[in-house]
Design a protein that fits this description.
The protein is α/β, with parallel strands linked by helices and 287 residues long. The protein has a single domain, classed as NAD(P)-binding Rossmann-like Domain (Rossmann fold), CATH 3.40.50. Strand 4, helix 5 and strand 5 form a beta-alpha-beta unit. The structure holds NADP nicotinamide-adenine-dinucleotide phosphate. NADP nicotinamide-adenine-dinucleotide phosphate (NAP) binds next to helix 2, strand 2 and helix 8. It holds the Pfam family adh_short_C2.
């Protein structure tokens, strides 16, 4: 994949040489008569892309010109259906099963994306888990290990592999990483899940630190901190009715949608956010 825009020779005869644009390249829309031909689409990997916020991100990113690799853990059928939706939009798609908390599976996933779609330009570290409400002094070691392994180690493994591919230090051509944090990171979630909150606070720190580490290497890193969003994650925490139950108590008197979070993620991924790095963006309806 070319690292910069290339312009058809017949169009450039009377024009100065094309300037490299900020990376990764993105289609211009609408095209002006002098616009260069569309470049190959940038490639995005969304972890936990089979449903919820991840799936909304996949759909929106595809509409905005990304080719997308959709990672999932169990829900293969949902991931495959979503890949078909992406292809129907004229973009390339692939699905890849991997547990992000397992380093060897993460390495295999990135290699599969390299082979399947080519040079990575974006990563959304979205895969995450909660567990049932409780106090820390009631939580067993297996739960705590799972929380840290999936939510934190998974994001660290994936961010590292993305930097290996995107950073100019490693011969890459730049890119953008968006990590999914949570307002729990600043609220702490006492009595419900301080383990989850702590894992998400670490995501905030990862985002700020890594952004500074790779800022001069063409890689931007940001985090999105959703509030209460209507997805299946609440059911997996034993509260399928959580969104409906708490809606009236929230500042906007409603929960958010996965699409509303995806809008922020996809903006941060793209060239419209070219000077935004190390940011933590609350998408929480003022919560
Ligand atoms: N919803 C909210 O209110 C909310 C609020 C703040 C932050 N967030 C964060 O936003 C992110 C997405 O949340 P969501 O509500 O969309 O969650 P969700 O509906 O429960 O979906 C979770 C996704 O992550 C995948 N996943 C789970 N464990 C995985 C693992 N070990 N390896 C790979 N993939 C895995 C699932 O795959 P399968 O479909 O194959 O199981 C699914 O695609 C999470 O990081 C979450 O912490 C959510």
């Amino acid at each position: 994949m070319p690292s910069t825009w290339t312009v058809n020779a017949t169009m450039t005869d009377s024009l100065p040489p094309p300037l490299p644009l900020p990376l990764p390249p993105f289609p211009l829309s609408p095209l002006s008569p002098l616009s260069p031909p569309l470049p190959e689409a940038p490639v995005l990997l969304v972890t936990g892309g089979s449903r919820g916020i991840g799936a909304a991100t996949v759909r929106l990113a595809a509409r905005q010109g990304w080719d997308v690799a959709i990672n999932y853990l169990h829900r293969q059928a949902e991931a495959e259906r979503l890949a078909d939706e992406v292809r129907a939009l004229g973009r390339r798609a692939m699905t890849v099963a991997a547990d992000v908390g397992d380093e060897s599976q993460v390495l295999a996933m990135f290699e599969a994306v390299d082979r399947g779609l080519g040079r990575l330009g974006g990563l959304v570290n979205n895969a995450g888990v909660v567990d049932v409400n409780g106090r820390l002094d009631e939580m067993d070691g297996a739960r705590l290990r799972r929380m840290v392994t999936v939510n934190l180690l998974g994001s660290l493994y994936c961010a590292r592999e993305a930097v290996h591919r995107m950073s100019t230090r490693h011969g890459g051509a730049g890119g953008s990483i968006v990590n999914l944090s949570s307002v729990a990171a600043r609220l702490g979630s006492p009595g419900t899940y301080v383990d989850y909150a702590a894992s998400k606070a670490a995501i905030d720190t990862l985002s700020v630190g890594l952004a500074r580490e790779v800022a001069a290497e063409g890689v931007r890193v940001n985090a999105v901190r959703p509030g209460i969003i209507d997805t299946e994650i609440h059911a997996s925490g034993g509260q399928p009715d959580r969104a409906a139950r708490v809606a009236a108590s929230l500042p906007m008197q409603r929960v958010g949608t996965a699409d509303e979070v995806a809008q922020a993620i996809v903006w941060l991924l793209g060239s419209a956010a070219s000077y935004t790095s190390g940011a933590i963006l609350d998408v929480s309806g003022a919560r």
